Amino acid sequence: MHERTRRIFCRAGFVLFCLLPTSVVSSLVIYRHTDRHAQAMREHWQAALATVLQADVSIGTVRQPNYRYVVLDDVQVQQLETGDLVAAAGALEVAHTDAGLVVLAHHLEVVDEKLPLLVKLIDAGVLQRASPGAPSFRMAASSLTIHGGTTGQTFANLRIQLQSAAGGPSLLLSAHAPDRPEESIRIMASRNRQVSPPLTRWELSTGEASVPCQLFARALPALNRLGTSCRFQGLAWLDASDQPQGGVQGRLTEVDLQQSFHDFPHTLQGHAELVLQEAVLDGGRLVAAAGSLHARQGSTSASLLLAAEQTLGLTLNERVPRDASSILRFQHLAFAFHIDERGLAVAGSSDPRFPGLVMSDEKGPLLSRTPGSAETVPVVAFVRMLAPDSAIQVPASRQTDWLLQALPTPPLQPTRMVEAPAPRTTLRLQE
């Protein structure tokens, strides 16, 4: 080959294999440090997260030390329609690994009133959209703070893992409880695609730790009746559907009796512990429950004791005044209960020293039940005990359930209390 030709080839090779790649790499390095590239990266990650979470996502800055590692600073998740803040993180470190996506979150915070919305975002944006062959996702945070209202609380060592399977994906969340740092609270959300239509099951397990009931009050407003100090320890599950089903086993502590009775004409004050051996929900309605309630050092109105005697068949001590407005102090309140479609049964203490005792003061029994037996009364009798001063009477049955759900609830209309006891059947409870 001629010398001139060799020089041309050498120069062309230098340009193609040395100068051009170096120029391209240098240009890319320079471009990655420009505002235009930073804006493009931020918009890319905002759009990607918004698509997954079905929410507005804003990111302060994006840093990419290498092609498999990205740092997102000042991340905020906002509700689509209102723009209200749902969750925020000081920074998210995102790494692409052979096993899947790994995220390390710093200063992770959630607004308590947006917890129900966050649950919907996880269900609709993550579980329902996850494909069977999707790579796994793992997330870790040194702490998770839920703030706002009266439920401000920080959980440590948060771990989240998303796994896909043929039957449907599952999301496991675990964190250490503040009251028992050695115990992990676990929440499992699993999507069952083997039923039609597919449904999502949520499961909560607290172990020996406990969580504030107010954390779930936004989704279940009835929990507000338990008071702001009430805590739950145990197991609970719920199938989210048009006709939700669920169950609870566990212990509710610091139940505020005054808050529970604030809508009723009776007075009952104090704090109690409610133990649920079982509670079954079907179609969003309680269909069966069994457990016990214990309280010490409280007060009650005589009207509640008189109503319990009349409707539940309990025995009232002669020391209790017949003036319904009288207020009595009690030292002890304890009873077991069982409720289902057959009715409600209440049993007193099994202690041989105080057989059948339900309520007592420093002088002795105030309210009791015949030892070893309990009368099963219709559930409507319990309702009548809580709100006896009403002239409106509606038969409670499955046939009238749809009507009760469809019509507005009428206000209380005072009337004279019926002296004759309602018909009852007797059920003997096995020890």
Query: What number of structural domains do the residues give?
Result: 2
Task: Tell me the number of strands.
Answer: 23
* Major sheet description: 23 strands, mixed
Shape: elongated
Oligomerization state of this entry?
A: single chain
The helix fraction, in percent, is: 10-25%
Number of helices: 7
Strand content: 35-45%
Distance between the terminal alpha carbons, to the nearest Å? Answer: 107 Å
User: What is the string of SSEs from the N terminus onward?
Assistant: HHEEEEEHEEEEEEEEHEEEHEEEEEEHHE
Average pLDDT rating: 82
Q: Classify the secondary structure makeup into a structural class.
A: alpha+beta
**Radius of gyration, CA atoms, in whole angstroms:** 31 Å
Low-confidence runs: 402-410, 425-431
